[in-house]
Every structure is written in C-alpha cells, then in structure tokens.
C-alpha cells in the first residue's frame, strides 16, 4: 500500500538524519512531517472503515477515492522527499561550508604568519650580510682617496657625511697603524689627509689644525674639537660679601632656575642647567648676590689665594670677575689695584665693582708694562696676571678664532706676555711676609703663550715655580717638539674642555726669591764656573792616577818653570842694559819701567785665576790625552825592545 511505504520512507529518512544536524537546523518546520503523518493515519482509517462497512459507498466511488488518495500520497511523497532532500543538502552544505571556511581561515593565517616570519628572516640575513660587506669594504680595507678623487671633490660641494666617515676611519687606522695601515702609505700621508678633512669639516685654518694635531693624539684631538663645538655650562659665583651659596640657591630655585653646586673644588660656584627667567636679570643679580662667571675663571684666584690686609694688583682686571672674587676672599680689607689698559672696558669693570659691593679697590688705566714705574717696584704682595692671549681655549664662545689666528698673532701675544710677566715680577716684593707670589694665566692652549713664557721668566728673574694648589688639571709640558723647558714646569696646570668640561685654560704660580734682577744671571754664571772647575779637577785626578803621567807632568812643569825663569832673567838683563845706556840720571825712568813690569805680571796672574772658556778646556784636555797615549805607546815599545 502506498501509505505504509511512504511512512517507511519518511521514517527511514528521518532516522538517517543525525541529531547534531537537527540541533543546528532548529528553524526547519516539521509541517511536512505532520501533514504526512496525517495523510497516513487518514488512509489507514478509511481502509479499515471501508472494509467493515461496504454499504456506505459504491465500488465506483470507492475506486475514485482510492485513486485520489494515491495521487495525493504520491504528490505528498515527492513534496516531502524534496523538502527532506533540500534540508539534508542544506545541512550538509552549511556544515561543509563552515568547516571549509574555518579550515581555509586557519590555513590562510598559518600561511601569512609563515610568510611574515620568512620575510623577517630574509631581511635580517640581508642586513647582516650588508653590514659585514660594509665592514669589510669600508673599514678593514679603508683606502685613502687618490689625487684624482681629491681633485674631483674640490669641484663639488663638500660631502659632510663622507668627510666624517673618512675622519673616523683615519683615526681608527692611526690608533692601530701597524695592523690597519694601507700598504705603501706612510703615517704622514694619513695625518696630512686628516688635517685637510678636519679643516674642511670643522672650519679651521691650516695653522691651527697643524698645531692641534701636533699637541694631541688623534683620538683625543677629535674629542677636543667636538667639545669646542658645544657650549660650556652656565656657571655663576656667589658673592660672599652679601650672601651664602645655600641661601642664593634656594632663592633661585624658587624662581624656576634649575641648578646644582659647581663641583667639590669650589665652595661658591653654581652650575645652571636651565631657567625660566633670565639669569642675568634677576633681582638677586641686580643686587650683586652673584656674578656670571665661567668655571675656568675661578682657578687663577684660587691659585693666588690672597690674604686679608694685603696689597694685590690685578694687571688686566676687566670686566671684574676675578677682581671681585679677590675682594670677597680678602673680605674688603687691604687694597686692590685693578688695572685695565683699554678705556672702553673701564665702565663694565667699575659697574661690577659697585654692584658687588667692593670697597677696597682702586681702578686705574695704564699699560701693564708701565705699572712698575707707576706703582713702584717691589711694592705688592701678590700679582694676578690674566694675560691677553689668542683665545684658542674659548673657541666655543668665539668661533672666529678658527680662521683668524696665525703664527704671527701667536708670536705677538707671546712677546706681550713676556713683557707683562717681567713687569709683574718686578712689582712683587720678595721680602713680603705673607706674599711674594705671581699667578700667570691665559685662556689659550698654545705652548708659546704658556710654558714658553714661564720658562722665559725663570731665566730672566730670580723666581721659582710652586704648586698651584689645585688638585686637578693636567701638568704643563716639559718638552714639546724642539722645545725643552725647565723641569719644574710640571707644577703648572692645563685645563681642557673635553676633560674638565670647562674652557681651555693655563695656570702657573711663581714665587719671587730675591728683589735682584741679575740674580738669575749670576746663578747661571756661577753654575758655568763650577762646571769648568769640575772639569779641571777631573782632568788633574786622571793625570795623577798614573805614575808615568805624574813624571811627565812634573817634567813638563819643570820645563815650563825653567822657561819662565829664563824669560825673567832675560827681561832683567834687558832692563839693566837699558838703564846703563840711559845713565844714572834716568833711574826714575827705570823705576817706572819696573813698576809697569810688576803690574803686567800681576795682571797675568789675575788672568790665570779666571776660569778658561769651555772650548779651551776641552782642547787642553784632548791634547793631554793625546800626549799620554803617545807616551804610553813609546814606553810600551821600549819595554818590548
């Protein structure tokens, strides 16, 4: 029958559908299934009724009804089958789509992540390979540019990046020259190229670069030049005549000034990092509580160490930073002569003295070389000479020094400084109970303006170098190129921006030993005399060491004495003959001749007492040695015979 078959098909299809798919497809309506069940139940019921009651319908009607039910069941069967098939297809396709989509998404993510990782690894490998290639080509195998390449560079704008790279490479090669140098290239070639590149990159003239290259090794030279390109920190000095450093720091911090103590070596210095107000226009500045002053300017005054109630001269005082510091250390006692040669700078000097509350200072306007005539010689206890200089230590403040200074300027400054330091020494009283000191300082790093000037003063005056009292700084040069200075110059101090973070500076402290100007010359002469006598004594000792030498020396002396006696007898006979010819009336003339003869002999004796020159001593010594060797050779030949 059609009904049971349809139910079996529907049941089988329903049974085949998994529960999981039913849960996922909850929105599917069960209407076709209910309609199918209804049709099945109606079909079963009519069949039973028709069998029991045949009298209700006829055979024809019964056949029509059966045919209608068969047609409806066939239609319903196909309809349900289509719905179920579409449902199953939808479920399967949906599940497969979800699974395939998830699998595809996972596959895409993995693929992309792998691609990214591979790209990163490739980039890393390429970078490492490029780095090694650059190191190999540019660093380990650095080559100086050829003449043609240098000529091409002159016709093009300067390539700063190329210059900087070449400077670093040359410095690296010079620091390990034996290992990294190019075959057939000398150190001079590298140094010459370094000079050219430094001059082009930093803007120095040839003279200044050459001097700096001679003074510093390559690595330190680059550090120094780089330090000149950066400004030094702003520093200020507390005026202890009006306030204390702690109080001043508290007030300035409240005004928005970020500061710290300068260093351990200074009790009055402050360093300013940044400020919300102009540091040179605060009420405290106007009231004279502090002075804007570079850290290097503290050093000469600290080395001078003035005492109370002393007589101090500042030979180049403007604008007054060092003078006011000296007055603060002296607590406004004693007297200070603040001299300034340039009249235009007297206004700033006077203004700062008034602002800082200094009352023990006399301002004067003279050439420093004439001050001994004005103030008198041997009248001051201490002298501070911050000499005018080329300014090669403060290039960070004045970049014009890079190109404006040459050898003639340095020599002119050196000559002026030598004259000023001699004038300063002449003004100091060597017999001062508390003083007798001269402090010489410059803001230059040139040897001709520093060590050469001090060495000149040591030769011309009776002075000596003493420690500066500064526990930091590099010692001065004892030898530099062809120069050889006094060994005590290691007591002087040099300061550099790349080492001490302050302007380039030089400080020396001298102690005057006597007020005589010729003391140094006499000491030099006495040293030469002692040396000549030492040479003579050594020669005599060598001659007395050998018996044969003694005999030969004695024979030589006897011969010499005999010759002198014979000469005296001959002179007496000549005098006697002359007197006999002149007669008795001319005895007075003979007496005069005798006196003249005695004076001549006395003069010769005095001349013998003077030490002979070194050349004569050396010549005589060599002759003696030859004579001794000849005598020894003859004696040896006689012994053999």
Description:
The structure is a single chain. This protein has 641 residues and is α/β, with parallel strands linked by helices. It has helices at residues 2-16, 19-24, 31-52, 59-140, 147-154, 160-175, 177-180, 187-202, 206-215, 218-228, 245-254, 283-286, 298-304, 321-330, 346-355, 371-375, 401-404, 407-427, 451-460, 497-500, 519-544, 547-582, 587-609, 614-640, and strands spanning 234-238, 257-261, 269-275, 290-292, 311-314, 335-339, 361-364, 382-386, 437-442, 463-466, 474-475, 479-480, 483-484, 493-495, 505-512. Among the domains are: 147-229, no CATH class; 233-293, Sun protein, domain 3 (Alpha-Beta Plaits, 2-Layer Sandwich), CATH 3.30.70.1170; 295-512, Rossmann fold (3-Layer(aba) Sandwich). 60% of the residues lie in helices and 10% in strands. Strands 5, 6, 7, 8, 9, 10, 11, 14 and 15 form a 9-stranded mixed β-sheet that branches. The protein has a 4-stranded antiparallel β-sheet with strand order 2-3-1-4, covered by helices on one side. Strand 6, helix 15 (346-355) and strand 7 (361-364) form a beta-alpha-beta unit. Helix 1 (2-16) runs parallel beside helix 4 (59-140), helix 18 packs across helix 19 (451-460) and helix 22 runs antiparallel to helix 23 (587-609). InterPro entries: MeTrfase_RsmB-F_NOP2_cat, MeTrfase_RsmB-F_NOP2_dom, Nop2p, RCMT, RCMT_NOP2, SAM-dependent_MTases_sf. It is found in: Nucleus, Nucleolus.
CATH architecture of the domain at 295-512: 3-Layer(aba) Sandwich
CATH superfamily of the domain at 295-512: Vaccinia Virus protein VP39
Helicity level, as a percent range?
Answer: 55-70%
The whole-angstrom Rg is: 56 Å
Task: Report the span from N to C terminus.
Answer: 171 Å
Overall strand count: 15
Catalogue the unreliable spans: 1-28, 30-57, 521-562, 577-593
CATH topology assignment of the domain at 295-512 = Rossmann fold
Overall outline? flat
Query: If helices are DSSP runs of H or I spanning 4 or more residues, what is the number of helices?
Result: 24
Main location: nucleus
Biased composition (Basic residues): 1-11
Region (Disordered): 1-127, 518-641
InterPro entries: MeTrfase_RsmB-F_NOP2_cat, MeTrfase_RsmB-F_NOP2_dom, Nop2p, RCMT, RCMT_NOP2, SAM-dependent_MTases_sf
